Amino acid sequence: MHGRPRVKATGPPDPERVKATEKKAALFGQLAGEVLARRAAARFDAESLGLAGKLLELHPEVYTVWNYRREALGPVLDAGGEAAVAAVAGELALTERALHKNPKSYATWHHRKWIVARGFCSLEHELKLVGMLLDADERNFHGWGYRQFVVQRMGTPAERELEYARHKINQNFSNYSAWHSRTKLLPVLHGGDGGDDADSDAAAAALAAALRLAATSGDGEAAGGTGGEAGGQAGSQEQAQQEQQQQQQQQQQQQASSGTGAEQSSAQPPAPPAAAAAPAPGKRPGAGPAAAATAAVPKEALDEEYELVKQAFYTEPEDQSGWFYHRWLLGCSLAHWEQARGAEAEAAERDALLAVLGREQQTCEELLEMEPEAKWPLLTLTRLKELQQQVLDGGGGGGSGGGEDRAAAGAPAADGSAGLAAEVAEGYARLKEADPLRRGYYQDAEQGRAHVVAKPSAVA
C-alpha cells in the first residue's frame, strides 16, 4: 500500500520468531509439494482444489496453482448452468481473499480477469469492488487496470471514466495512475485508437518513431531508481511496425504450442498482426496510426488538459506525476503539426505548436519565480526551449523538409533559433548543479546525445 512506512527491524532477531518462521516455511513447502503433485496427476476433485485454495491464500503469487484451478474449472465453465455460476462465485471469493493478502498480486488479478471474462457474474459488483480498492489505495495500478477492463466490458462511456479520473486527481494530484488513465481515454473519446493495452503499446512505439520523441517516461524516478534518463533516438516507423508484428507472431506461436491447457489466459484466439497502414492522400509516411491517435485529441481539449495539469504544478511543483502527463500532452500537440507536414495546413499547425510551447514556457518560468530550486519546472522549460529551437529549424534533416520547403512554409532561417541554443545550454548547466546525481545525463543531453526531445524529423 502506498504511504505506509516499512518498520525496520532493530537489534538481533527473536529466536522464537525465527523458529516459528522456519516451521511455517516447512509446512508451506509440504503443502505446495502436495498441491503440485495433485496437479501433475490431474486430480480435479474438491479436496485437491481446496488444498490449492489454501495455498493461494497463504501465498497468492504461486501462478502455477492458479493455472491448476483454471485447468479444473475450464470444463465446468464451458458447460454453463448452475455449476458454472457456483464455480465463478467461489473463485471470485477466493481471489478477493487473496487480494486482501496481497493487493498487488499479478497472478491473482490475472485469474480474476479470466473468471470475469467467462461471464456468470455481476460487472456492477466488480466495478463497486474495485472502486472500494481505489478508495483505500488510490495509486494501485492493478486496480486501475482492472477498472479499465471492467468498464470496457460494460461499455461505460469514456466521458464518465474521464470524470472519475478527474475526481481522483482532484483528491490527490500525485495520482500517476489517474493521469495515465486520461491518456487512454482522451483518444477514445475523440475518435482515436486508444483502446486496449496492445493498441496503446503499438501506438506508443509508433509515436516515438514518427515524432522522434524519447520513449522513456522520466529520469528513473518513476521506476524507483536514481539513474539518468535512458535516451536513444527512436527507430523508423517501419521498424517499429515490424517489431510489433514479430511480437504478435511470437505470442501466437507460444499460445499454439501451449495447447488448450490452463497456461492459456483466454479461450479467445490471438489477434492477427496489424498490417502497416498506407499513408492517406496528402499525408506524410511518418504520420502513422499513433500520430493519428494523439492528433485525434482536438487542440481545444488539449488546452483544457494543459489547464488541469497546470493546477497540479502550482499545488506541488516537484511532484513528477503531472509533469509526465504534461509530456504526453506535448506529444499530442506535436502530433497535430507532424500530421500536417507537407500539407497546406503545415504553417498554421506549426504556428499553433509554437504558441503552445511559448505558453507552457511562461508557466514554467512563473513556477521557477516561486520555486527557484524546483527541478521539474526547470527541466521542462529546458525541454520546451529545445523543442522550440528544433521546430523553428524545421524539424531537422533526413526528411521532406528542406530549406526551400521551410521558406515556402514561412519558417524562419535556422539561425533565428541561435539564442535558444544558449538558453538550452544554460538550463542544462543549472540542472547539473541542482541535480548532481544525473549530472552525466545532463552533460550528454547538452551535447546532443541524450535525445530528451530529439528532432521531430520526417520518417523515410
From TrEMBL:
Ranges that cross the membrane: none
Give start-end ranges for the coiled-coil region(s): none
Q: Does the keyword Repeat apply?
A: yes
- UniProt signal peptide: none
Question: What's the catalysed reaction?
Answer: geranylgeranyl diphosphate + L-cysteinyl-[protein] = S-geranylgeranyl-L-cysteinyl-[protein] + diphosphate
**Positions of the region Disordered?**
218-296, 391-416
**Which stretches does UniProt call biased (Gly residues)?**
221-234, 393-402
Query: What Gene Ontology molecular function terms does this protein carry?
Result: Rab geranylgeranyltransferase activity
Q: Which Pfam families match?
A: PPTA
What keywords are assigned to this protein? Prenyltransferase, Repeat, Transferase
For bias kind Low complexity, which ranges apply? 235-296
Q: Which domain of life is it from?
A: Eukaryota
- Quote the EC number: 2.5.1.60
Asked if Repeat is a keyword of the record, the answer is yes
The processes (GO biological process) annotated in the record are: prenylation
Q: Which GO terms describe its cellular component?
A: Rab-protein geranylgeranyltransferase complex
Family the entry assigns: Belongs to the protein prenyltransferase subunit alpha family.
Q: What does this protein do?
A: Catalyzes the transfer of a geranyl-geranyl moiety from geranyl-geranyl pyrophosphate to cysteines occuring in specific C-terminal amino acid sequences.
| Protein name, per record | Geranylgeranyl transferase type-2 subunit alpha
Give the organism the record lists: Chlorella variabilis
